[in-house]
Amino acid sequence: MMQVTALVSFTAILCGAAGTPTSAPGPASAPVSAPAPAPAPLAAPAPGVAGELARLSIDYADHLFRDGDYYRSITEYRRYLYLTRGAGAESHRAALAIGEAYLRSRQLEAAAAQFESVAERTVDEEVRAVALLSAGRAHLLNERPLLAAARLAACRQLSSERAGVADEALFLLGWARLGQRDWDSARSAFAEVATAGGARAAAAAQAIEHLERRGNFQQKSPVIAGLLSLIPGVGHMYLGQWAVGFAALFWNALFVFATGYSIWTQEWGVAAVLGVFELSWFSGTMFGALNGAFRYNQDVVNNWLDDLTGELGAARELTPVYQARGLPGELDRLLPAAAAGG
Fold first, then answer.
1. What tens digit of pLDDT does each residue of 257-305 get?
2. DSSP assignments along 248-295, one per residue
3. SS3 of 66, please?
4. Sign of CA pseudo-dihedral 141, 142, 145, 148
5. Rounded to whole angstroms, how far apart are CA atoms 118 and 106?
6. Which of 76, 129, 151, 295 could serve as 136's disulfide partner, Cβ 3.0–4.6 Å?
7. Which residue, among 225, 155, 147, has the nearest Cα to 180 in the 3D structure?
8. Cα–chain-centroid distance for residue 133?
């Protein structure tokens, strides 16, 4: 049996050698190797393969998102959009999920840019409305109320029939007006939301209560501060800056005394120099009191806004990811009341 096997193998070798052409020997020279053929272009994956890869990419992206790995989920959502050339069944959701991932990871500028890109490219009015709403939310949380107001106003102009879009846009617009210090417009927006009786009605009513208490602020009059500063330091005392006030009174009195003494002793050069210093010091004291009154009032407003944000600011955010229903990027998920089942 072993002899038969060896015979068959030897016969195959001979047949292969016989079928191999041999070239005639030439002059001795260095062998010239033929150029390597150009690599063939990679063929595009078959539609079925691309579709399966796309499905796996978006499934894995959703898994990473739920795991809190927002950065890697963004990569997978982008992979899905690449594989489907933006025409997949879930392209809108994937694009909005990228924005949601940026928003939840507090990359607010990137979130706003992503949502605005979706709003510009889509022809679906509901998708555009939610994208503009989400862009406004990102700008608002990034403390850019002017940009937020523009996106939210554009959202309200769209005829979206999705429940909650109009109320949410108006509620966030009220916050944007607060950021712009436009108290009347903010109150009007919150009043309309409260009257509508939607999911944001209670929070809007609380914001109105805070706005009504704004009239009780203990603010300082810049005019009074300036007039009191005719007696150096008294304007600062009016602002509660007692140490600054007494220091200003002391130094101004000292300069006045020194200037008067120099005039009495007829040291005119010294008197002139001291008089210039005193005039500068006196002007600075008065300007400081005026500026201090404006800063005092601004601090009062900022403290009030901080209290309001601390109490009601969470209402501007998306529903916490562990409470939100549905898949990342779904339209209802970007509406907090709907995302929480409210």
1. 777 767 787 777 766 776 676 677 667 777 777 777 777 777 777 787 8
2. HHHHHHHHHHHHHHHHHTT-HHHHHHHHHHHHHHHHHHHHHHHHHHHH
3. helix
4. negative
5. 19
6. 151
7. 147
8. 13
